[in-house]
Amino acid sequence: MVKLFLVRHGQSQWNLENRFTGWQNIDITVLGQQEARQAGKALMNESIDIAFTSTLIRAQHTLQIILEEIGKPNIPIIVDAALNERSYGNLEGLNKDETAEKYGVEQVHIWRRSFDVAPPGGESLKDTYDRVIPYFENFIQPELDAGKNVLIVAHGNSLRALIMYLEHLTPAQILEREIATGDPITYQWDHNNKII
Fold this sequence. Notes:
With 196 residues, the protein is α/β, with parallel strands linked by helices. The protein has helices spanning 13-16, 30-42, 57-69, 96-103, 105-113, 125-145, 156-167, 171-175; strands at residues 2-8, 50-53, 77-79, 150-154, 185-189.
């Protein structure tokens, strides 16, 4: 049975500092490195043929640690911005609590948790979905259809968009889904392009 593995990068420095990170290239913390190693241990007995990740260092560093942990540092790795985190635009780098004080808790909640409302200068989850899913269909799904086990190491919102697609979730359902850092999610892929 073909498998698809999804991993959100380990804790980043700005996760730790409660900042909007988005497309900023912030690396993982010591805890994030530990989470990546734990993800590798969880995937130790799985066969992984190819990996996909974003252009951001926190995802790439997490992937590197996972592959070292499972003893497969040389499998093909495809890097693409289509898998980048959702852009938070003008909010990137700002502390989330301070932003809530400035713009109001309700407005920040809408920016963070609505499906189709983007923060100033940034992307909504719908915008993220609209770049992640065509990339998945054109570049990742063919690898699964060819019988390869695929690992994707990316970000909370790019993975949330993909999970919405794979599980046929509504916007309301996906907004309630939390994705823990460094905790692998495994799907089985059948030959009718369906998740089991």
